[in-house]
From TrEMBL:
It comes from Gossypium laxum. Pfam families: CDC50. This is ALA-interacting subunit. The chain crosses the membrane at residues 62-84. It comes from the Eukaryota. InterPro entries: CDC50/LEM3_fam.
Amino acid sequence: MHTSALPSFQKLYGRIETDLDVDDVVVVHLMNNYNTFSFGGKKKLVLSTTSWLGGKNDFLGLAYVFIGSSSVTVAIVITLLHLLSPR
């Protein structure tokens, strides 16, 4: 494990590949293999879902969609300008 760039970070431990229903019970067994008490650190278990845009923060996915669509639009405009009035 290397030093994190930020004081708070999350590390992906595993993935649940099957679909879970509303009343499903998830059992997790935890072991303390790395002591964080010496420097006042904390450990937390986070269960999260992902969508087609990515993880819990949609900004990066939306930024990719916006930049990609604006690049295609600019490319089409430049192509049309070149075809309509060549040098």
